[in-house]
Amino acid sequence: MGTQPLAPLDLAFWNMESAGHPMHLAALGVFTADAPGAARHAAELLATRAAAVPGLRMRIRDVTVPVGGAARVPAADFDPLEHVRLAEPVTDFHAAAATAMGHPLDRAKPPWEVLVLPAEGDDTSFAVLFKFHHALADGLRALTLGAAIMDPGGLPGRPPPVPASASPPGRRAPERAGPRPLSGRLLGTVADLTRALDIGAAVARATWDVRSTPALTSRPTGTRRTAGVVLDLDDVHRVRKSAGGTVNDVLIALVAGALRRWLEGRGESSEGVAPRALIPVSRRRPRTAHPQGNRLSGYLVRLPVGEPDPLARLRSVRAAMDRNKDAGPHRGAGAIALLADHVPALGHRVSGPVVAQAARLLFDILVTSVPLPSLGLRLGGCPLTEVYPLAPLAHGQSLAVAVSTYRGRVHFGLVADAVAVPDLDALARALTTELAALAAATDG
């Protein structure tokens, strides 16, 4: 693979990072082991397979043109053993993942790493933490890279094929479109400016009448805590069929209800609380100018934490999501990521740290969905039984929520500032309680 200039949003993620707020996304996978030493064998397989995946050999370096820009380039000294590490046995997979989530990736090397976690005193399971910098991959790209070092087709022991970087045999590479006429470029510029002004105005409106809670905002400490919870997807579908909306509507409503229960368990008031949740939306399309880059927009939704009735919370979330979908992912405050396309590379370099500090002004909590294949995944023949997506934690925010469905179950991955949220497990339990409450309300 040759040099790949960073797309504007990738460059923004690269420049927003700080030591206390790493910009990597991750997934914690738990595997059933079939023999003693399975974790060590898994680490050896991962290192061997990583060497054959071109996308994992790419580091990010500054470029001269455009000024302030950066690009992915092949790392001549790439050594997979510097990225795949076998840890000492641990008693708590999430505690080990939390420590690793707080450590930034080495920016001088390809920005990814894998930590294999054997279970102390237990040869029947092990975990693997996959970390990818957001400038290297979004959720879909990270999934592709991660799948390339798993057992192909669910079959144990076989190395994956090396992904082709050229067009398939017998097919011509798509031709580049010629330059647009001047009139077309002018119209495009006006449309882009109009969209940017629309998004900017929506962002300004979203900062009015903010009804969040101090529990979701904090002074950054650089510490991390993670937790996970698994729910039955059939239960979610039953709620959806009875109450209407989408599975995603139900999952977001579960977060709102869990936050309410969590606040009440802390002895804090939830009255009138409606934190702004950023819901990322993928805009990935084939044959884009930056096929490897992040293509994201988002919806901004007020979570009805202050609403006491579970069904009313779900209806509120559904209505808010419907309004966002009607407007589309190119409008509204949640589309703030689209403005990255209108900032020159040097602007990202200079303003990145400032933008990172302003995240709390834009939204209060991230709630993101990460796609996973429905087929069972294996590593060295060991089946993947649980997988918790983990999102980066924005500056000044206490909590980020990621969710994936895998093999008939819903996996919530929670990342929090460890000092601000010492009771993250209570929030995880509240998600289970909230689903039971919604199911009971819809059954009734």
TrEMBL record:
Pathway: Glycerolipid metabolism; triacylglycerol biosynthesis; Lipid metabolism. Residues 293-438 form the O-acyltransferase WSD1 C-terminal domain. InterPro entries: Acyl_transf_WS/DGAT, O-acyltransferase_WSD1-like, O-acyltransferase_WSD1_C, O-acyltransferase_WSD1_N. One of its GO terms (biological process) is triglyceride biosynthetic process. GO terms for molecular function: diacylglycerol O-acyltransferase activity. GO terms for cellular component: plasma membrane. Keywords: Acyltransferase, Glycerol metabolism, Lipid biosynthesis, Lipid metabolism, Transferase. Residues 154-184 are annotated as: Disordered. It is an enzyme of class 2 (transferase). Its EC number is 2.3.1.20. Pfam families: WS_DGAT_C, WS_DGAT_cat. It comes from the Bacteria. It catalyses: an acyl-CoA + a 1,2-diacyl-sn-glycerol = a triacyl-sn-glycerol + CoA. Residues 6-250 form the O-acyltransferase WSD1-like N-terminal domain. Belongs to the long-chain O-acyltransferase family. NCBIfam families: acyl_WS_DGAT. This is Diacylglycerol O-acyltransferase. The lineage of its organism: Bacteria, Bacillati, Actinomycetota, Actinomycetes, Kitasatosporales.
